[in-house]
Structure formats: C-alpha cells, structure tokens
Amino acid sequence: MVATVVYWFLLVYITTALVWWFIALQSKTHLISVHDMMALSPNDPSFLQKSKEITDEEKRKTAQYIGEGATFLVVILIGAVFVYRAVRKQLKMTQQQQNFMMAITHELKTPVAVAKLNLETLQKHKLEESQQQKLIQATLQEANRLNTLTNNILISSQLEGGAYIITKEDLDFSLLVSSCVKDFRRRFPQRKIADSIEDAVDMLGDALLLQILVNNLLENAIKYSPHESVIHISLIKTEDKALLKISDEGSGIPDKEKSKIFERFYRIGNEQVRKAKGTGLGLYLCKIIVADHNATISVTKNHPAGSIFAVNFHL
C-alpha cells in the first residue's frame, strides 16, 4: 500500500514538474519576444522583416519545447508502465509465495500427524485385524500424499533450475497410465474411477515425469469433485497423436481462471478460506512436463458439471 502511494506520488510529481518546465520556458520565450519587439523602431525599414523573424523564432522555440516535452512525457510514461508492471508482478509473486508457505505447512503437518496418530494407536491398543488394516491403509494414503507433495516440490525446483536431466526412452504409455489408475483405486477404494485406455500406445518420454503428470491430474480430479461422482480417464491414439483425457464432475473452473491455473503457486480463491488441500504446484508442474514432451494441455468444461483436462501428445 505504501509503495503504491509513493509510486503514484512520484509519477504525479514528475509529470507536474515537466508541465511546469514547459510553461516556464514558454513564458520566458514569450517575454524575450516581447522585449525584442519593443526594442524595434517602427521607422526602421526592416521593421516588418525583423518582427516576422522574432515571431517565427518564438514559434520555433514553442515547437521545440512541445517536441522535447512530449518525448520526455512518453519516456516517463513508458518507464512508469514497466515499473508498475514489475512491482505488481513482484507483489503478486510475494503473495503467492506466502500462500504457498501457508499451504505447504498444512500439507506437511497433516499427513505426518495422521500417520503418527495411527501408528500410536496400533502400538497402544490391540485391535482386530480389520481395524488394523484400516489404520494401515489410512497411513499408507497419507504417506503417498506426502511422497507426491515432496516429489512435486523437488521435481519442479529441479526442472526450473535445470538440475533435472530428462531421460527419454521408449515406453508403453498405456501400461504407465493403467498402473497409475490401479494405484489410485488402491489408495482411494471409495472413489469411482472409470477408465478407457487403448493398448500399446507407445511413446518416447521420461517415465517418472509422465507418471507425475498422470498422478497430478488424477489427484486434482479426485480433490475437486464430490465423493459419489465418477472420475473418467481415457487414452486414445490417432495416427501420430495420443490423447489423454481426465474428466471430473466437480464445480468446474471459471473461464477467467482457466489461463491462470497453470501458473506456479496459483490457486483459485483465498488460501485462508479454501477447503481443498493443495500447494498450487501440481498443474504448474503438469504444464512443464507437457512442454518437455512435445505436447499441449488444455482444460474445458465438462457437461453437466466439472472439468476436462486434455493432454495431446505429438508422437
């Protein structure tokens, strides 16, 4: 807030000083012209010629001041726009980083606390086999969540810094997607996941990054859709392309937000009132992985409700 006030104060001050400079020079030039005109003698045979020269000189000076002033004003305004955008971008990034720190703190504490509580319960109480398996399953889910979170943070940091070496190899993408779906069905047995995956969709890619891509999209669909709804995932191949689609039946994404959800740390809504868990890195990481695999990612509205994320690979 203070920076914004100082910025606008300085901009107004500089613009006012420029206008005052123009008025002062113009007044001085006019006074000089009046003085020179008064010094002329009407009886002088060259009176008209000299009067015209004085008037032309005043007009030339006025045009010069206008040109210089306009140039300075344009330069000032262009600089002001760049500074304003840079400051706004920095403030936005700072706010997103603060939101990320709030989210990551919660995301790290929650699975650790749940896993610790479950293990302490198993240690202190003699439970039936079914209860033990239920607690173990819950602990594994939290461990997997923690693993996904740390992978997202580590991989996104390495990809940005150029530390991650992408190792592309021939792989069966159909098998990889099917493996991810089986893992999610095991982790979330209460959720309905319908799949339609073509066999033998072979491609060149980094297995770890592609697994993170599929996992993030599946987790995103589960996170933002009702528990009783169905998550649909499909993989089809057409000539030299492969299309991966994951659709949910959640509340959907507003059109004005669709271009922002792939930005780093960006999450829809206010971090303090947002109920869904997340850090704002999942879709950002998906965008980077997709770009590294000669593909594109898009999001469209699902009917009657929800969103469809589509990744189009150029094989």
At a glance:
With 315 residues, the protein is α+β, with helices and mostly antiparallel strands. It has helices spanning 2-39, 47-124, 129-161, 173-187, 207-223, 282-292, and strands spanning 169-172, 192-197, 202-205, 230-238, 241-247, 295-301, 307-314. The longest helix is centred in the first third of the chain and has 78 residues, at 47-124.
Task: Characterize the structure shown.
By secondary structure, the protein is of the alpha+beta class. It has six helices and seven strands, in the order αααβαββαββαββ. The chain has helices spanning about 1-40, 45-125, 130-160, 175-185, 205-225, 280-290; strands spanning about 170, 190-195, 200-205, 230-240, 240-245, 295-300, 305-315. The chain starts with a helix and ends with a strand.
Q: How many helical stretches? A: 6
Fraction of helical residues: 55-70%
Average of the residue pLDDT scores: 84
- What fraction strand? 5-15%
- Coarse shape: elongated
Major β-sheet profile = 5 strands, mixed
What structural class results from the helix and strand content?
A: alpha+beta
Q: Over the alpha carbons, how many angstroms does the gyration radius reach?
A: 33 Å
Work out the number of β strands. Answer: 7
Strand numbers in spatial order across the main sheet: 2-4-5-7-6
- Kindly, what is the distance between the CA atoms of the first and last residues, rounded to a whole number of angstroms? 50 Å
Quaternary state of the chains = single chain
Order of helices and strands: HHHEHEEHEEHEE
